[in-house]
Structure formats: C-alpha cells, structure tokens
Amino acid sequence: MTKVNEELALKAAELVRLTHEAKIPVMVLFEGVAASGKSRLANELLLALDAKYTQFYATKTPTPEDLRMPFLFPYWTNLPARGEVTLYFRSWYASLLDYEYHGFKKDIYKDYQVLQQEIEGFEKLLINDGYEIIKFHVEISEDKRQEHIEKTKENPLTRWKAEEFEHAIPKELYENGMKELISNTADISPWTTINYTERTQAISEMYEVIIDRLEKALKKYKKKKKPEVDGKFTADFTTDLFVDTEDDMSKKDYKEQLPALQNRMREIQYALYEQKVPLILVYEGMDAAGKGGNIKRVREALDPTGYEVNAISAPTETELAHPYLWRFAVDLPRTGHIEIFDRSWYGRVLVERVEGFASTTEWQRAYEEIKEFEKSLITEGAIIIKFFLVLDKDEQLKRFEDREKTPDKQWKITDEDWRNREKWDIYLEASKDMIEKTSTDDAPWVIVPANNKKAARIKALKTIIGHCEKRLNI
C-alpha cells in the first residue's frame, strides 16, 4: 500500500472510532460484476477497521429454506447496532437481481418492481433512524477482469471460485440491472462508482468517500438538537370509536361453538402450511382486555411445531440499539407458519407516544413506516390480521380488583397498570389515531368488544377463519 493510502486508511479508522463513540451505525455496500475487485476493496477496508465492532456479510444466492423468509430478512438480521459497522459484499441490490434472474417467487411477486419499493422503504427507514449508508459500485476494464478470472482458474486451490463466477448473473444483465437501480435509488442515498482497473487509485477513492461521508455524519451529530417529545394530545378528547364494548354470549353458546372453531383453526393451520402462506396475528388493546386468554383459545388446538407467540415487553438494551422494527423483523414466520404478537410494533404509536419514549418526529413518521413494513410482508404472501380488544373503564376496574384479590392472578396486576389507567383518555386518542392511520384493505384492524371475554374469543376465531378461508380458497 502507498503511503497516501496508509494515511487515508488510518484516517478512516479514526473516524469509525468516533462514529462508534457517537453511536452512529454505518453500512458500506460493495456491488459489482464477478471479478470486478469488490472483494479486494471490501477486504482492504475490513482490515483497516477495528474488528470489535465491524462485521462482514456476503450475500449469496438464496437456498429453498432462505426463500421461505421475507426478501429483506437476511439484511434485517445482519443490521449493525448503533456505533457498529457492517460491510456488505453484494447487498439487497444484488439479491433483487438474483431473484429476477432466477425467477424466485415469481408467482408471489408478479412484478419485481415491488422489491425495489421495499428496498427504498428499508433505506429511508434506516436513514431516518440515523444510519449512514455508503454505496459503492465497482467497475473494471474487461481485460483486467478476465486477467483476474484466469489467475483464479490457474490455481487449483481457487479454481472453485472461477466456477462460481460462471454461475453468477451474466455480466450484461447485472450491469444493466444495476444501472437502472442506481439511477432509481441515488436520491435516497448516493452511489459512488469506482473503477478498480488501477488498484491503488481505487483504494484511494474508496477511502476518500468514506472519510467525507463520516466527517459529514459526525458534523451532523454534533449539531443535533435535543428532539421534541410531545404526544400532541387533544384536551378533553372524546371518540365514539370504542363505545361498543359489549357483545352478548352465554356460557352455553360459547361451549357449543368453541370446539368446532378450534378444530377448524387446526385445519386452517395445515392448509396454511400446505399452501406455504404465512399468517401474522397482532393483538393490541386496553389493559386487562383479555388478549392472553384470546390468544390461548386461538392456539389451543394448533400443532405447536407450526406457530409461535411473541409476548412483547419493554425493549432490551440490544433491541434499543437497533431501529424499533428490528426486533419484529428478525422474528417473522417462515412460509406456512403462524406468528402471534401479544402487543407489537404498534408500541411506537401507543405506549411510546403516551409515555414520551419516542420523540414527536419518531412516532409521527411511524404510521407510514409501519404501513410500509406490513406492505412488504403482504408482498411476501402473508395474511395479516390485527385485533384491538376494547373494554369499558368500569369493566377494567372490576378486572383489576379481581386480579388483586385472586392469588393466582396477582402477578397480572402491577403499579404500572394503575398508572396507565390514569391516562385512559390519551391512550384512547393514541389508539384511535393508530387504527385510523394504519388500517388498510390488506392489513385491517378488527375492533373486538371485550367486556364479554367469551364473545371476544369467538369473534377473533371466526375472523381469522373467515380471512384464511377466503385467501386459501377452502
């Protein structure tokens, strides 16, 4: 390495130490045709940075098992935490081209343009959350590229690599596809094209771009003002959205209907698996509205190998070091499986808005971010049903007091539950805004009257079965 490049490498490493201290997450993408030099550039940077907080991720052609997960799943699971760096040898862009070239999931996507839209939403969300995304497109002269390939073929220990090149997306298709993607996504986060034909110059250009971007990111961080934290609630708020809390059902009717519905739910589970359709059930609602009991009746007759329940509590330190959607994105169901969320990503616009855990900007932009997130799951073929369980204030008080008096229910009631009750009206406003701003045709909110727990359980089961029967055509 030249003295100039050594100095640039040291400067880049120093800046990354500062971004680590400032908790700025950095993502560096290397795209380019096979044997373009992108692996050498990536390795050059990897060796210059501190291994304690630098990761490397190489995109590969997905296996059949990989294809059972959402398109962006590998990138959510390999997202750097705040203050860390991840280098991507090929990225979601190469993955999109791979999907298109091999026709992966063509019957689901219909048009691969939807994956570009997912990418755009993904990058916007990350940038809004403070991520620095640096994208390199590596080019090389064809003579130099063929020279690299021939050297790889000549060495028996690297010959497998040359064979791998032969199975890659054809050079012309890749270049044309990347040209279009670069043009369409440059306004979200800019691309830099580097020609690797002259190695020393290419390394210099890479470091110069990284240094420039990180210096700007650190400057922006230093100028950052304390964010406004305001739930923007209305004085004397009222709404008639939640007035219907009662749905009559006798104990006899409940006992007659429940077994048949649960058996049908088990049949639905097998049909979902056979048709490889993921089902996502979201439960939100007022404290003591019976979410847990409702979920129990939905899953009571299910095969436990085909579903999971995620009971969401306060985020851990690791979860707080990532975007708020991260802990949900890494725990999504594979095709044919059921994922049940007892509270969910809607915490950003409910408890985080009410309690001031999210800034005004964060919870206000979350409505669209959540809709984009759910849209990407629907693109993957998922069925999403969202339940909001409603009970009136008197019934909630009755259930709280019952929990305090009953030894085996006392663990269910906490001081926080009583504090939340004092914020009843602002929780109502946050809930109304959430439902009105995020209910869509493909991911609807279903308001479930929950004063009568038995009626609420039957309604949820009937709703799930109805949606699934229609989608599965059974």
Automatic annotation (TrEMBL):
Residue stretches making up the Polyphosphate kinase-2-related domain: 7-220, 249-470
Pfam families, per database record: PPK2
Gene3D superfamilies: P-loop containing nucleotide triphosphate hydrolases (3.40.50.300)
Protein's name in the database: Phosphate--AMP phosphotransferase
